[in-house]
Design goal:
The protein is an alpha+beta fold. It is built from 6 helices and 10 strands; from the N terminus they run αααβββαβαβββαβββ. The longest helix is centred in the last third of the chain and has 18 residues. The radius of gyration is 23 Å and the shape is elongated.
């Protein structure tokens, strides 16, 4: 039976590649993904599903087998990143955004799984819930889908997701016990100083200098406040301050 599934999956390869390249060509960011969600809904309906948008761009479709059982959730994210694509592939993005984190692949893989499940529906024991999530990068999509009841009706017993990784060889799947994917807590630090001319720093309070010390000290949280046996990372991904080279600004945002 497993060999049958493998052969069926191989037959879907070109179709899944096409899904991915289509989604890659028009990336969308955040929670509003009109083209992406329309494409996903269209493909699911063509397979015989009845997808539902339970919150902005949050799509759910279910498939039941003839045998009773638990409810298993498969999840993929759909949003891209606000970066400009610099590749030269013929399906590259041209709208200033890019699927640089692989969510186009995640969505394509879940559409492939949806088709494979449809072809083998009689083998399903219980229910499989297919979830396409917006705004993973902004950390709001999962929360909004949970608030909208994605884990209920029917109640989910277990869930699984995959994330592509450019450092892993092709045809290799990594899994293990314990933590494998981090949970995110977003924070924003505003350092307020007193602006002045760069030639007379003694007349103001330089927030860039203060923020630089905060930035360096934040790494001490990992070195001195977190156990060496625990996995943790602190990252400042945005550091903004100043408008002119010769003016000390009034504030810095991290």
């Amino acid at each position: 039976m497993m060999n049958k599934f493998i052969e069926q999956a191989k037959l879907l390869k070109d179709e899944i590649v096409n899904y991915r390249r289509t989604i890659h060509s028009y990336p969308e960011i955040g929670e509003k993904l009109p083209k992406t969600k329309a494409f996903v809904i269209e493909q699911l309906r063509a397979m015989g599903y009845e997808p539902e948008e339970i919150c902005e761009s949050g799509i759910v479709a279910t498939i039941k087998g003839n045998k009773p059982g638990k409810t298993f959730l498969l999840r993929a994210d759909m949003d891209a990143l606000p970066v400009t694509e610099e590749t030269e592939c013929d399906f590259k993005s041209t709208n200033g955004y890019m699927h640089a984190c692989g969510h186009d692949m995640h969505t394509a893989m879940l559409l492939g799984a949806a088709k494979l499940l449809r072809e083998n529906q009689e083998q399903i024991e219980g229910t499989v819930k297919l979830v396409f999530q917006p705004d993973e990068e902004g950390f709001t999509g999962a929360k909004k889908m949970i608030a909208a009841g994605v884990l209920e009706n029917p109640k989910v017993d277990a869930a699984m997701a995959m994330h592509v990784h450019s450092g892993t060889p092709s045809n290799v799947i990594l899994c293990g016990l314990g933590t494998s994917i981090a949970g995110c807590n977003r924070f924003r630090i505003v350092v307020k100083g007193a602006g002045c001319h760069g030639a007379m720093p003694e007349l103001g309070v330089d927030p860039i200098n203060i923020a630089a010390h905060i930035y360096l000290s934040l790494q001490e949280i990992i070195a001195r406040e977190v156990s060496a046996t625990q996995s943790a990372v602190v990252t400042i991904g945005k550091f903004v301050g100043g408008d002119a080279a010769n003016i000390i600004p009034g504030q810095v945002i991290m």
